[in-house]
Structure formats: C-alpha cells, structure tokens
Design brief:
This protein has two domains: 83 residues, Nucleotidyltransferase, domain 5, CATH 3.30.420; 138 residues, ATPase, nucleotide binding domain (Nucleotidyltransferase, domain 5), CATH 3.30.420. The chain contains seven helices and ten strands. α3 packs across α7. With 252 residues, it is an alpha/beta fold. A five-stranded mixed beta sheet has the order 3-2-1-4-5, with helices on both faces. It is globular and about 55 Å long.
C-alpha cells in the first residue's frame, strides 16, 4: 500500500493507493495546536499501520509547520521516510512561472495530474481554502493562473468584518434574488462565485488562445459546478491523490 498525503491549510488528506488507483481517502483537520486533533491523528496513523502493509509514503504540502510535524509522525508510527513532492520527487511539467519555486506544489501537481488524465489545453479550478485557477497550454506546460479567497474564507470575512451581517453556513440558495440577509449572502456566494468561475475560464481561454477543458477539484467543486454555465470536462475530488499516484510510479 502507498499512502499519499495532501497537507492543506484546512485539512490533511490521506489517499490510499493500490495498483496506481485511489482506493480510499480520509481527511483530518489541520489544527496543529489542537490536542484533540493531534490525538485523533495519532490514533488514525497507529490504526493504519496495524491494518496495512505500508511500503511508501508520498507527501504534498503547502503548510511547512504541519509538514514538519507530520513527517516526524510518519517516521514514528510507520517507520518510513516519506518522499516530499518538490524536494524528493519532481513534478514532470514545464513551469512557466517567473519564479518557479513560488508555485504551490498542490497547484502544480493538480495541473500535471489533470493534463495526464484529461489532456491539454485546460484550466484547473481548485475550490479549497483559496480558489485557484491554473492554466496548462496546448504544449502541456504549466502557465500560472489566479488565486482568490475561498467560499468559507469569504463567509468568515463578511461576519468578522461587518457590524450587522450574520454568520451564515454554507448552503445552496434557492434563487438568485435573496429575500433575507442570509439568502442574499448565500446567493452572492454561490451565484457570484459561479459567475466568477465562468468569467475567469473565458478570460484565461482568451489569453491562452484556445477553448480549454475545465477540470474542477476541491471540497466545493461538486456544489459550485451547479452554479456554472461553462462546459466542465470533469469534477475530480481525488485529483491531487491521482497526481501522487502518477508520481509514485517514477519516484526513486
């Protein structure tokens, strides 16, 4: 069994890989200062090593402190030195960023995985803590893209930075025209972000000089797809784990 670990700002995802396929995904909150979360993580890792014969661990991280913590736990519980994407395993895609090292490894890995699985040219939309748009050219190169605050961040900012707006849970609006403050915020989030996604895909396509395929991933991808009008090639919640599965076949 190979375990692929995605360390994000909100969660740590564990993808269980067998024969190059993702067979199970488990997510744990990424709250390093929480004793309860750390205890749950310890229990999960201890139970995992008792259940599976783990022969390799590959990690993709955008949170350095959480990465250090988890690498120690991997060594402690599983007795394995993990391979870290970008350090021990290079992502085989041409990177057109002005400063290539500045690109989040998750963005680059998802672009690579989408290209391999769905073909180019394409735009990858990742709806996580932040929403990222990443372009892959006709020749298969990573071009860069755009970053905006994610859905939950926007809702939290509205509540924390305004005097009268209420805290609103993530829920799909029934109509565009909200008849209450809560409905209006929900409409703004979902219809607004849906229109934003449509517009960004159109503008990225104009700049890329093509009609790119659209691949969506991240926690809110399935919901947001319903509020978009542009064609979507795939909603793939396991994209980053599939990317690590592809890398594991070429890792030393």
């Amino acid at each position: 069994m190979i375990i692929a670990i995605d360390i994000g700002n909100s969660t740590i995802g564990f993808g269980f890989l067998k024969d190059g396929k993702v067979v199970r995904v488990v997510a744990v909150e990424n709250v390093p200062e929480s004793k309860l979360v750390m205890a749950k993580l310890d229990n999960f890792m201890e139970a995992t090593v008792a259940r599976y014969a783990i022969r390799r661990v590959i990690v993709c991280s955008v949170v350095p402190d959480a990465e250090k913590m988890l690498l120690k736990k991997i060594k402690k519980f599983w007795g394995i030195k993990a391979l870290v994407v970008g350090r021990d395993v290079k992502i085989p895609i041409e990177n057109k960023y002005h400063r290539p090292r500045q690109v989040g490894k998750d963005r680059l890995l998802c672009a690579f995985a989408a290209r391999e699985l769905y073909g180019e040219p394409l735009v990858v939309i990742d709806l996580g803590t932040a929403i990222t748009f990443d372009g892959v050219s006709k020749s298969g190169a990573y071009l860069g893209g755009a970053i905006i605050p994610g859905i939950r961040l926007s809702l939290e900012a509205l509540f924390e930075k305004t005097a009268l707006l209420p805290q609103v849970h993530v829920a799909e609006p029934k109509k565009v025209i909200g008849r209450s403050t809560t409905e209006s915020i929900q409409s703004g989030i979902f219809h607004g972000y849906g229109a934003l996604c449509d517009g960004m895909v159109a503008r990225l396509g104009e700049e890329m000089g093509c009609q790119p395929k659209v691949v969506m991933t991240g926690g809110y991808a399935g919901i947001m797809r319903r509020f978009m009008r542009c064609p979507v090639e795939a909603v793939d919640q396991e994209l980053i784990f599939k990317g690590m599965a592809l890398l594991s076949t070429v890792a030393p």
